[in-house]
Amino acid sequence: MQTHFYLSISPIEALIASQLEPEAFGRYMAIGTKNGSHEYIMFIEVSGEFGSDFDWEYARTRCVSHENGEPKHSLWMSVYRVLEHIPTDVMGAMYLTTADGRSLVLEQAGRYIPEDRPFHVYQELTPLTPLVVSSLDPAGFAASLTNPDEHVSVPRVAFADLKVIDFDDMTTTGNIGAAYDRNLEHLKECIRDVTSSAGKPSKNVERSVGAFSYQIIGDGVFIGDRTGVVMYEMPDITSIRRNHYEWGRSAMLF
């Protein structure tokens, strides 16, 4: 059986080997072989055996079928500083798996042209997890977080662009769950700060967000550093309703 390698970016950063195909792997990670965890997982299939940061021989000798022929479901290869050691050119499709094991496949976008808007709301996914308002576009935001000249930085970051409430008419925003319920006034304050001429370019709305919902993803998910970003583009609601209806219901998009 073929061994696949998966970069988990949420809810945990990890590199996992598996003999399961991507959608079967997502289903296994979400619900297991027994009724139990029921949690979402965001992961990317990557081409294996690149560089020397991971023990590929360990995967070759341990990611093998069971005696009864059942495939090896998961072999955890690393859970620390994984993202920074995986080149973006070996990253394939991203899978957004719901708590009941349904996956939406996102391909890397071609050329990303950011929308010109005064601010963005980002959910950092790994290795940091704050909810952030920023006047920077995704490439600028990734560059700022990975700038080693800053007092605090990381080598690479994964984050999602989020839908933003239409404060003039909240009924037009669509179903984004309770993401902003606890911090709506603070969110507005952060937006005012980053859009003012004297404000900082980015401000944390929350230091850490435990539960992240797919229904709030806007343009897509980004992975980036000072050299640029790769984007996994989120389909619009019409496309999801037409082509991925069961996933959309499972993800509570409608």
Q: What proportion of the residues form beta strands (DSSP E)? A: 25-35%
Q: Helical amount among residues, as a percent range?
A: 10-25%
Protein structure class = alpha+beta
Query: Which shape, going by the Cα principal axes?
Result: globular
Q: What strand order characterises the main sheet?
A: 4-2-1-3-5-6
Describe the main β-sheet briefly: 6 strands, antiparallel
The oligomeric status of these chains comes to single chain
If you average the pLDDT, what whole number results? Answer: 90
Number of strands: 12
Overall tally of domains: 2
Distance between the termini: 38 Å
Q: Give the ordered list of helices and strands.
A: EEHEHEEEEEHEHEEEHH
**How many helices?**
6
Radius of gyration: 19 Å
Q: Uncertain runs with pLDDT below 50, 5 residues or more?
A: none
